[in-house]
């Protein structure tokens, strides 16, 4: 009885712990058929417990763990495909020539309705434009001055430190001019939309010739499968040859969309170039530091880990051959009845 | 060989103050070399993409003031 | 003694105690077979162990003998090894210092003026718009800046003054870059009011709050103000243009 209980405990707690145990159980179980029956029961018990655990977990997931979809696919919008963006690669900067083209597209097409009011003119200097170009662009706009001595606010030409002016005075004016739809500010749009660059590109180029059969398009809206709800206030904007690029790139609709998306990614993350470079530097230094730290750890521990302790018990050894350690153990066993 | 090692050892490691100075001077030297080296690699990977590669197209005649502005914003 | 072997022996001991004496020998046999089978058994694994301190006859052991560690000894020279170790430890410390320095530096740079503040920190002034003998007040970093186009008489008056006897002694040439252009922060050094131009007993500025008088070089001459009007950073990059900041 005790043999069986000890067998069971050694099975349950130290299953497959060392060959010594396994030999012991094999030898012991061969002696009595009771043990064999117990091991079958053990297997059944373990299996049913496992089944119960797995079953309750899957039941719980079925009840509470599944994602719930509040909207249909049409309401979520079509998921944009992955485009092979060059500028989002970890080792690549923005193509600043493309940024220039993208800003050109923004100014000629998007700026009629959309603002990028988080971008000051000085940001263009040193990444898209020379100082003179940026200054000239800033001076085209008029800004309010501080109140003068009579308390009146005058107009002054823009400076590099000014932020880009929005096309509308306020949101209400924007809605009134756009059939009730508010054109969002585009400064952070790539970060603010699920799908980022892919979404914006797919949206800009994804207008079908006409809505598919069965699609309901409200009056004043346009059909775009990538826009959540498919009804978008903005009609198709980009057509082949809409702008004349200064560098002679053919202005196809997809080229313009690609350039403007890269530009909008730059407005959202103007620090991306520097950030990626810094990231690589940090990773290089940290890798070397990690290797060195491993070496130093081994160096410091080497003397401690390679110590050898030898102990010889002080009492007189028995007559058997072999080391004192073994003799001591055997001696201990034989003393016990 | 061992004479050279001995010379290096006595010159840089033997005295703790000298050793520490060597470490910190070496750290600054490493930083400069590492920075310029990694910038070189980065620029060669991204050749033709950065503003400094294309700005010569837009820098017409009067270049003095432009350079000043670029230095301010590159940082 | 390791746990599994302990379990084995206790198991066998229990089994042996319970069963008939005849079975006892078989149990002992099992125990023996166990030992032979498993190389991991604690009682056999030390069988080949010989103490490095073991010397002399079996009953008299000499514990003072230092064993021979020769096979652990490095084959390269001692200086070379030491240099390598110091190099590794030193470059570890150096790189760590580098990282720490850059981290601290980034935090400190965070505290300095941000790009939008720096962009507004410079004000350009078109000097051709300011006729001789006139004051202009310009806002710079939220403070007024006085720009005075001084006449030849005023320059002479400012330079001829015996400045060593003033409260805040300062010669006129220290306060201007070009003598005809006097540029000062328009904040009274007493309690921060904005002084009035072309007023006061000395033909310069007068602070209406507590009656401090400044001369045509902006030096305090009378009243509670302790210091002369402050001079900001400014420069003349080209003719007819001044940049403050």
TrEMBL record, chain A:
Its cofactor is heme c. Residues 97-250 form the Cytochrome c domain. Signal peptide: none annotated. PROSITE patterns: CYTC. GO terms for cellular component: mitochondrial inner membrane. Residues 139-161, 312-337 are annotated as: Disordered. The keyword Cell cycle does not apply. This is quinol--cytochrome-c reductase. It comes from Neohortaea acidophila.
Automatic annotation (TrEMBL), chain B:
Transmembrane segments: none annotated. GO terms for biological process: mitochondrial electron transport, ubiquinol to cytochrome c. One of its GO terms (cellular component) is mitochondrial inner membrane. The keyword Mitochondrion applies. It is found in: Mitochondrion inner membrane. Keywords: Electron transport, Membrane, Mitochondrion, Mitochondrion inner membrane, Respiratory chain, Transmembrane, Transmembrane helix, Transport. It is a single-pass membrane protein. InterPro entries: QCR9, QCR9_sf. It comes from the Eukaryota. Component of the ubiquinol-cytochrome c oxidoreductase, a multisubunit transmembrane complex that is part of the mitochondrial electron transport chain which drives oxidative phosphorylation. The complex plays an important role in the uptake of multiple carbon sources present in different host niches. Belongs to the UQCR10/QCR9 family. Component of the ubiquinol-cytochrome c oxidoreductase (cytochrome b-c1 complex, complex III, CIII), a multisubunit enzyme composed of 3 respiratory subunits cytochrome b, cytochrome c1 and Rieske protein, 2 core protein subunits, and additional low-molecular weight protein subunits. This is Complex III subunit 9. It comes from Neohortaea acidophila.
UniProtKB/TrEMBL annotation, chain C:
It is a single-pass membrane protein. CDD domains: Rieske_cytochrome_bc1. It holds the Pfam family UCR_TM. It is found in: Membrane; Mitochondrion inner membrane. Keywords: 2Fe-2S, Disulfide bond, Electron transport, Iron, Iron-sulfur, Membrane, Metal-binding, Mitochondrion, Respiratory chain, Transmembrane, Transmembrane helix, Transport. InterPro entries: bc1_Rieske_TM_sf, Rieske_2Fe-2S, Rieske_2Fe-2S_sf, Rieske_Fe-S_prot, Rieske_Fe-S_prot_C, Rieske_TM, Ubiquinol_cyt_c_Rdtase_Fe-S-su. It catalyses: a quinol + 2 Fe(III)-[cytochrome c](out) = a quinone + 2 Fe(II)-[cytochrome c](out) + 2 H(+)(out). The keyword Mitochondrion applies. Its cofactor is [2Fe-2S] cluster. GO terms for molecular function: 2 iron, 2 sulfur cluster binding; metal ion binding; quinol-cytochrome-c reductase activity. Residues 34-62 are annotated as: Disordered. The keyword Transport applies. Its main location: membrane. One of its GO terms (cellular component) is mitochondrial inner membrane. Residues 152-243 form the Rieske domain. NCBIfam families: Rieske_proteo. Belongs to the Rieske iron-sulfur protein family. This is Cytochrome b-c1 complex subunit Rieske, mitochondrial. It comes from Neohortaea acidophila. The lineage of its organism: Eukaryota, Fungi, Dikarya, Ascomycota, Pezizomycotina.
């Amino acid at each position: 009885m005790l043999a069986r209980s000890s067998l069971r405990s050694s099975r349950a707690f130290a299953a497959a712990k060392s060959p010594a145990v396994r030999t012991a159980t094999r030898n012991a179980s061969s002696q009595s058929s009771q043990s064999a029956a117990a091991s079958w029961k053990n297997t059944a018990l373990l299996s049913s417990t496992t089944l119960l655990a797995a079953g309750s977990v899957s039941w719980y997931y079925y009840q509470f763990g599944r994602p719930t979809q509040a909207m249909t696919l049409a309401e979520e919008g079509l998921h944009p495909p992955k485009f092979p963006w060059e500028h989002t690669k970890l080792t690549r900067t923005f193509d600043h020539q493309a940024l220039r083209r993208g800003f050109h597209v923004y100014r000629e097409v998007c700026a009629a309705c959309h603002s990028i009011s988080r971008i000051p003119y000085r940001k263009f200097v040193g990444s898209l434009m020379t100082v003179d170009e940026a200054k000239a662009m800033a001076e085209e706009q008029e800004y309010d001055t501080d109140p003068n001595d009579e308390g009146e606010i005058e107009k002054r030409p823009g400076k590099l430190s000014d932020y880009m002016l929005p096309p509308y005075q306020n949101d209400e004016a924007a809605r009134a001019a756009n059939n009730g739809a508010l054109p969002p500010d585009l400064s952070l749009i790539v970060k603010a939309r699920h799908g980022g660059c892919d979404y914006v590109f797919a949206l800009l180029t994804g207008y079908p010739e006409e809505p598919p059969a069965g699609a309901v398009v409200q009056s004043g809206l346009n059909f775009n499968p990538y826009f959540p709800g498919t009804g978008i206030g903005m009609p198709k904007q980009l057509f082949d040859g809409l702008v004349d690029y200064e560098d002679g790139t053919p202005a196809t609709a997809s080229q313009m969309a690609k350039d403007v998306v890269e530009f909008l990614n730059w407005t959202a993350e103007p620090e991306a170039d520097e950030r990626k470079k810094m990231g690589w530097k940090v990773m290089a230094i940290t890798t070397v530091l990690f290797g060195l730290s491993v070496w130093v750890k081994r160096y410091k521990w080497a003397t401690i880990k390679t110590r050898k302790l030898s102990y010889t018990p002080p009492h007189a050894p028995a007559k058997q051959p072999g080391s004192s350690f073994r003799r001591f153990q055997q001696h201990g066993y034989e003393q016990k009845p | 060989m061992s004479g050279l090692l001995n010379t290096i050892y006595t010159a840089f490691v033997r005295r703790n103050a000298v050793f520490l100075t060597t470490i910190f001077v070496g750290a600054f030297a490493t930083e400069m070399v590492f920075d310029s080296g990694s910038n070189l690699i980065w620029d060669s990977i991204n050749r033709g993409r950065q503003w400094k590669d294309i700005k010569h197209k837009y820098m017409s005649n009067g270049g003095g003031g432009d350079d000043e502005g670029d230095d301010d914003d590159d940082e | 003694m390791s746990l599994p072997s302990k379990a084995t022996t206790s198991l066998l001991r229990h089994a042996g105690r319970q069963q008939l004496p005849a079975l006892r020998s078989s149990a002992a046999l099992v125990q023996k077979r166990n030992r032979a089978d498993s190389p991991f058994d604690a009682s056999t694994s030390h069988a080949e162990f010989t103490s490095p301190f073991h010397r002399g006859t079996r009953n008299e052991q000499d514990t003072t003998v230092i064993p021979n560690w020769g096979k652990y000894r490095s084959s390269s020279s001692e200086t070379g090894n030491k240099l390598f170790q110091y190099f590794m430890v030193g470059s570890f410390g150096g790189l760590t210092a580098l990282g720490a320095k850059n981290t601290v530096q980034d935090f400190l740079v965070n505290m300095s003026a941000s790009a939008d503040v720096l962009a507004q920190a410079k004000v350009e002034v078109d000097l051709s718009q300011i006729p001789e003998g006139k004051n202009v007040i310009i806002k710079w970093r939220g403070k007024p800046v006085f720009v005075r186009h001084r006449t030849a008489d005023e320059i002479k008056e400012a330079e001829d003054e015996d400045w060593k006897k003033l409260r805040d002694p300062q010669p006129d040439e220290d306060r201007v870059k070009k003598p005809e252009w006097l540029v000062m922060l328009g904040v009274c050094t007493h309690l921060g009011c904005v002084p009035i131009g072309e007023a006061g007993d000395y033909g310069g500025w007068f602070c209406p709050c507590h009656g401090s008088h400044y001369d045509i070089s902006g030096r305090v001459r009378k009243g509670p103000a302790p210091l002369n009007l402050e001079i900001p950073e400014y420069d003349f990059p080209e003719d007819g243009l001044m940049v403050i900041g």
